[in-house]
Amino acid sequence: MPRRTTRQIHVGSVAVGGDAPVSVQSMTTTKTADVDGTLAQIYALAAAGCDIVRCTCNEEPAAEGLAQIVPRSPVPIVADIHFQYKLALAALEAGVQALRLNPGNIRKPEHVKQVAREAKDRGVPIRIGVNAGSLDPDIAERHGGATPEALVASAQRELAYFAEVGFDDVKISVKSSNVPVMIDAYRLLSETVDIPLHLGVTEAGPLPGGLVKSTAGIATLLSEGIGDTIRFSLTADPVEEAKAGRQLLEALGLRERKGLDLIACPSCGRAEVDVIRVAREAQDALEARKIPLQVAVMGCVVNGPGEARDADLGIAAGRGKGHLFVRGKVVRVVPEADMVAALVDEAERIVAEGIDARLAAADENAEAIAAATREELLQIQGRDANHSEERVARIREIADDPGC
User: Fold this and answer.
1) Prediction pTM value
2) Are residues 13 and 97 located together in one domain of the fold?
3) CA atoms of 380 and 234, how far apart (whole Å)
4) Between 71 and which of 46, 184, 288, 386 could a Cys-Cys bridge form, CB atoms 3.0 to 4.6 Å apart?
5) What is the mean pLDDT of the segment spanning 171-183?
6) pLDDT tens-digit readout, 353-374
7) Based on the domain organization, do 48 and 130 belong to the same domain?
8) CA atoms of 182 and 197, how far apart (whole Å)
9) Do 47 and 137 have their domain in common?
10) Considering 208, 232, 251, which residue would you say is the last residue of a domain?
11) Do 19 and 68 fall into the same domain?
């Protein structure tokens, strides 16, 4: 369907706006300081069709967690910032691919502009995330409450602050839990700016009502050609948000329908193989066979099976071998040269026999071999192969600097 023309920005490797496909977003519900738990949820979201994931950055330990999460995430990470502008600076230091700022929560212009300057220097985009529930009191009073005009005025004020420092790498959301208000706000905004728009009905609630409200608002706008990236804000497992978003885009013909969901880590200091090559070969082979599974290709056995434990099937590399896992459990160890062939073979067996049968047929020694390999790699590479501790130290310096 025809879409409104917008400028294009990039959130990491994901293009937003212009002629890019409409992307799906969600947000983790874990404590960001819980690195392993957050990464497991990120991988589950990616397997469900999520293109971009937002994580809260509400305290210093969360920023430190981001420094370890970002290099191991399969998708770009957006830091969600509320109230504390220093945490936005810390998140940038952690390496996030985007920020989300709520104009109603960070109100001092000098703080907003300082964050924008730093984001500009790093080439990191910012989402202006206007929310009906947290409007500046003066804007709400001037417009008679959280009206569509008030939401757009809040976004325009933030844009003016950004313009003062020459920052325009921006996308905008004007969310409300009231569907008609949300629709009218985005319509008005789309007539006012050519900036990419992030669609969502905030605080939509639990299933099924939240799904209905989100679909009503988002689908209405997408059918009018408005919107460049979307999020279903449900009171549910965030994987349900990603699935709903992907299914909506496929139903509207805005994203290609695929049987295979293949996710892969972006590689990091622990990678034992060329992840890009292995992932490409696996994707080609599995798509040719029309395998309807969620499949993960991971660069190392240290983090791989745990981070992608919600995938139906996956393989991780370690010391010249491929560790094949089903739902996070290592079931077989094969030579590195046979990784793709083993992955395809196991995928076909899962389709024919079912996951439970394949778990029951696991090699009883596979888990022990994987554990030994993991420990060997930790001894060789250390526990901080991505040098995250250096970023954490810098984050602490920013937090402790009275001049910031």
Assistant:
1) 0.89
2) yes
3) 43
4) 386
5) 97
6) 999 999 999 999 999 998 998 8
7) yes
8) 12
9) yes
10) 251
11) yes
For residue 159, pLDDT over 90 is answered with yes
39 and 168 in one domain? Answer: yes
| End-to-end Cα separation, the chain, in angstroms | 47
In terms of residue numbers, what domain contains 331? 261-381
Give me the residues paired with residue 171 across strands: 127
Q: Would strands 321-326 and 170-175 be described as parallel, antiparallel, or unpaired?
A: unpaired
Residues 6+ positions from 390 with CB-CB distance below 8 Å: none
Task: Yes or no: say if 202 and 186 are a contact pair by the CB < 8 Å rule.
Answer: no
What per-residue confidence (pLDDT) applies to 300? 86
In this predicted structure, the answer to whether residue 401 has a pLDDT above a threshold of 90 is no
